[in-house]
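Retro notes - structure team

What went well: the batch runner handled both jobs without manual restarts.
What didn't: labels got mixed up in the shared folder, which is why I'm recording both outputs here explicitly, each with its sequence directly above its tokens.

Job 1
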Amino acid sequence: MGTLLTVLAVCAAVSILAKILVRIAWAYYSNQFPSNKANTGSMAATEILGNSPACARNVVLQHGDSNCFDLKDDTIALTPEVYNGRSVLAICVAAHEAGHALQFSRRHIPLVNLKLFSNATSFMVMVSAIAVILYFYIRTDIWMLIAVLCVAIDLATRLVLLPIEFYASRIALFELSKIGCYNETELRKMKRMLRACAFTYVAAVLDVLLLIFLLVLAMLCSGKKNAPRKNNLAREKRPHDSRKRERAV
């Protein structure tokens, strides 16, 4: 139990630290502007796509809260802050999604398969939440095991997606350097920002890992609570059995 609590504390500390570093990077680079201020995030992404044949069709504006490369429509969807933004942050986020588009155009098999499979993992997280609720009502260990299994599958998927995210950032940096309108200092800033983009997925992996440890801890604690009850029941039955034997004699 002590080892589990130690690992739990370390995962929580690293997860919090990773999120703080990512937020600092996003706040800092949202106020950093390259010398070529004419480029927006959408222009940078379009320029990267234009340099590579058989790539995503277009870059579109969406009014959601996340930037993504849509495999179904073969388009890059950007939020207004990134689509119209001229900061290092906006350009790097758009370039990162363009990196995913380049991966897809090159038939990067892990990306294609895992992006499709990641939709199933979101369903598994829902199943795990339902299983935890059922466990607290029914008190059957099978529900907690189902929850742990579903979250473990989600963790495995995120772990395999990590190198894909880092590779997309590498592609983005290479393509930004090919454009030729950014100097060495600006490219170094973009490298740090793209690394921060990839580390958002590291923080997500740590969160899922933390959830698994919490579920295991809950199972261990509930097992300890149930153990004394079983012992008490056994002790209550013993005198009853001895009385039966005395009567038989």
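Job 2
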Amino acid sequence: MTRSSQPSTPCQEIDPDHEIRVPEVPLELRSSVKLALLDRLFAWARKRSLSPLLFGLTCCDCDMAVNGPSQFDSIRPGLDSMSASYREPDLMIVTGTVTMKIAPLLVNLYDQMAKPTYVIAMGACAISGGPFKEGYSVVSGVDRLIPVDIYIPGCPPHPEALLHGILTLQDRLDPQTRAEVRTLQPRRDVGIAQPILEPSAVNWRDLEGLVGPRQEES
């Protein structure tokens, strides 16, 4: 209900973004009843029900797995247990080097995950290629293929860094409305993205420029 059509009744909360008035809860029900906007209810549900996809590539996967036991207890802030099925999870944590061979499979899994879908790039390899950047078979960052929400630098990042990244993602989801969710917007199907490789730092075809001219055999 808009502000112009809202009757003159006491109001408990006003949403400045949507110009919606939330009516006041009677005094006898305030201990058990809470009124909120539907968008905030959806945001609260998304924030507290993130389900990560089991998608470990290289060494950063070990630091991601450490968040499961009770020492870090990633389930307490609302992160569900990791699943190997791509139909249920809505959070993809990319840990490790993304190669040209695995890139189409990664994008295919992302498209088939539950919507809205969020992505965390964990480690230098997933962010920019790491020590393998500009390699002939390495994608220089997973954001060349799919949109990334949170970047966690390090080689490898500590488990505390991943937990901080998850809490940061939850803070971003809290004020998010359904109209602001990227994966819920209509978009044209462009198929599976092809990896974009950086130009190689070494021209391996120019061997003579690196090792000098070949010596002719006598």
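One thing worth noting from job 2: The beta strands are 11-15, 20-23, 52-53, 91-95, 118-122, 150-152.
We'll revisit the folder naming next retro.
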